Protein 1
Amino acid sequence: MTAQPVIDGQDARPGDGSAALPPTVRASLSPSRAADFKTCPLLYRFRSIDRLPERPTVEQARGTLVHAVLERLFDLPAAARTPAAAGDLVAPQWDRLVTEEPELAGLFGAGDDADAAEFLRTAAALLEGYFAVEDPRRLEPAERESLISAVVDDELLIRGYLDRLDVAPDGALRVVDYKTGGAPREAFEARALFQLKFYALVLWRTRGVVPRVLRLLYLKDAEVCDYSPDADELLRFERTVVALWQAIEQATARQDFRPRPSRLCDWCNHQAHCPTFGGTPPPFPVAGPADPLTDARSGPAVPGADE
Ligand code: SF4
C-alpha cells in the first residue's frame, strides 16, 4: 500500500481537492461520506448516489454558526479573544451565513423573532462552553478550516476540512474538532473519532508526522476528549479506509446498499425513503457521477455541517 501527498492546506481548484492528482486516482472520499457508509450503507447511498436533498436543521445551522464564530475569533489579536468578543461575532456571522445560504433563513418563520433570538442565544451558550475548556488568548492555531488531502492505495483521494490544527514549537501536531450537537455523545463519539483519525492519516501521509493529539471539544458539555494515535494504528486505519472504499465500490456495482438501523436513525433526514421505516428507496440512478473527483456531493462537508 502506498500513499502520496497531494494538496495540503491549499487547493488550486477550490472545493474539489483534485489539483495535481496522480493519473491513477479515480475516486475521492471524505470522512463524512466514509462515516456515512460505516454508519449505514443506505444512508451513504441516499447522500452520495441519490443525492437526496436534506433540509438544514436548526442544530446543523447552529453548528455551522459556532464554527464560523470560532474561526473568526482567531482573526482577532490574541488579547482581544474574549467571551464578549465571541458573543459580538454571533449575529454578524449569522447574517453572513444567511446571505451565503438563503435557505437558512427558512429555518425560522417570517417574523418568528423569538425563535431566531433563541437560536442566537443558544449559539452564544455553546461559545461559553468553549471558553470553559480553552483560553483562545493563549493559542495561535497554525490552520483553521483547512482542506487537507492525500492519496492512499494509489487510487483513492481522501480529503476533509480540519476545524483547527495547532502546531507546538517542537513540531507536534494537535487536531482539534469542535462538537456542537445536542445528540447523546455515545451515539456519535465513534463517528467523531473515525473522522479525526481520517485527518490524522492525511497529516501523517502528507507531513510525515503522526499527530500527537486528536482533540474533540464538546461545547455543550464543556468537555475535552483527547486521543493519541500511533503510526501502527494509522496504518491499520488506512487499510480500513481502503477496504471501506472497496466495499462502497462493490455495493455500487451490485446496487445493494442495506439499511443499518441504529440510534442515529433519529437524526436521519431520509426515514421516508428507508425500508426500516416503511419507506421505499428511489430507483437506483442509471449512471453514477461521471467524474467522482468533481462530484460536489462527494466533497468534504464544510466545518460544522456534520454535527
Ligand atoms: S433511517 Fe436509519 S437505517 Fe434508514 S437510511 Fe437513515 S440511518 Fe440508515
Note: The radius of gyration is 19 Å.
Protein 2
Amino acid sequence: MNRRFDAIVIGAGQAGPPMVGRLAAAGQKVALIERKLIGGTCVNTGCTPTKTLVASAYAAHLARRAADFGVNVGPVGVDFAAVMARKSNVVGNSRSRLGDWLRDMANCTVLEGHARFVSPTTIRVGDDVLEAERFFINVGGRAAIPDFPGRDQVRTLTNTTLLGLDVLPRCLVVVGGSYVGLEFAQVFRRFGAAVTVVEKAPRLVSREDEEVSHAIRKILEAEGIEVRLESECIRFEPRGADIAVGVNCMSGDPEVLGSHVLLAVGRRPNTDDLGLEVAGVEVDAHGYIVVDESLKTSAPHIWALGDCNGRGAFTHTSYNDFEIAAANLLDGAARKVGDRTPVYALYVDPPLGRAGLTEAEARAKGHAVRIGRRPMTRVARAVEKGETQGFMKVVVDSDTDAILGAAILGVGGDEAIHGVIEAMAAGVTASAYTRVMAIHPTVSELVPTIFGELSP
Ligand SMILES: Cc1cc2nc3c(=O)[nH]c(=O)nc-3n(C[C@H](O)[C@H](O)[C@H](O)COP(=O)(O)OP(=O)(O)OC[C@H]3O[C@@H](n4cnc5c(N)ncnc54)[C@H](O)[C@@H]3O)c2cc1C
C-alpha cells in the first residue's frame, strides 16, 4: 500500500532539512529521503571538511612562520593522519547532530534510499512507494568527470575520494584552477605535498577580475605551487607508479607528473536518475532543473532547491532557496530568487570575499563605474598580524552612487566583505558608507575609507 504524506523532500542537503523542519512545525506530515549521507555535500565532502583542512593548513603555515613573530617552535611537521582524523571528527559531529534533529522531529519520517518519481505524485524508494501533494527536490550535484584522453587508464580523484585519503600524496596534480581546486592545492602544499595546478584558461579563477586572478596566482606560487595555465589538451598516461598529465601549455614542459591527480573541473547536477520526465519536470541542456523566480519547476506542485536548479552553487544559496520557498508557501510572502545579490568566498589563505559584480561584469552590463582600491599593506590590522598579501576593491555606479560589488582578498576578507554585503542589501550608497564609524583596528574599518577614495 502507498504511504501518503503532505510533502516529500528528496535529498538531505542544505535546503531539504530546514524545509522539513518548517513544514513539520506547520503540522504537515513530511518524509525526507536521503540516499547517502545526511547533510549532503557541504557537511560531508564540501564546506565542512575542506574548511577544517584549511584550518590545519593555516596552523602549519603559521607555525613555519613563527620566527617572523619572534616565536621559536623548532621544525614543523604535519601528522596527516591526525589532520584527517580531526576533519572526520568535525564532519561526523555535524552530520550526527543534523541526523538526530531530523529523526527526533515530530511529523517527520526519514527514509534511506534512492528516490525516483514513478508518477507526478508518487516516488519509489527501494520497496516503498510514497505519495504526496508537494515535492521539494534538493538532490545537489557531484564532481564532473570529463572524458579526458587516457582518463580510464589512470586513477583520478574527486573532492570526495581525496578527502578519504589516509596517506599524504607525494605529488598532487590539481586539474582545474578554480574555487574547489585552489583550496585543495594550497591545503596539500601546506601539508607538504608538491602541488601543480593545471588550468585550461589563461588565468586562475577566470570569473574574477584579472587583478584578483593575478594576486591569487602570486600568493600560491610564493608557497611553491606550480601553476600551468592555457593547458589546451589535458590527457593522462600511467608512468610507473605515477601519472603523467599532458598539459601542452604555451610554455614549459608539455607534461607534469603526479603521484595523485585531483579532477576539480566543475560539478553536474544529480538529476539524471530521478525520473523527472515522469513527473513533468523540465531540465536544461546541462541537466539543471528549470525553475521560476519562486523556485517552482514546470510541475506546479514540485520545487527544486539548491545546486540542482543551477541558480547557485553554494550552501548559502541552497539555504536561501529554502527560505524563499518556505516564506512564499507558508508565510504568504512573494520572495524571488532574482532579488538576492551573488556573494561567496574562496578559502585560499588569505581568503577572497566577494559581493555582487566584478568590475568586468559591471562594465559589460553597461555601468559607468568608479573604483576604490587599497593594498593590504596599507591596512593596519593586516600589518599588525603580519599578513599583508592581497588587496580590497570596490565597484560603484558613477551615475547612481550605488554599490555594485566588492572583492576583499586579504586576511579576514571572508568576514570583512559582509559589511559590503549588508550595505548592498539595505541599498546603502557609497557616499553614505563613507560616514560609517568602524572599529579600529580591523580590516573592515578601511572599507568606508575606500568608498571615499573612488576614481574613474
Ligand atoms: C570541495 C567543495 C567545497 C565547498 N565549499 C563550499 C564553501 O566553503 N561554501 C559554500 O557555500 N559552498 C561550498 N561548496 C558548495 C556546497 O557544498 C554546495 O553548494 C551545497 O552543499 C549545496 O548543496 P545542496 O543543498 O544543493 O545539495 P547537497 O548538499 O549536494 O545534497 C544533496 C543530497 O541529495 C542526495 N540525493 C541525491 N539524489 C538523490 C535521490 N535520488 N534520492 C535521495 N537522495 C538523493 C545526495 O546524496 C545528497 O546528500 C563546496 C563544494 C565542494 C565540492
Note: Residues 80-103 form the longest helix (24 residues).
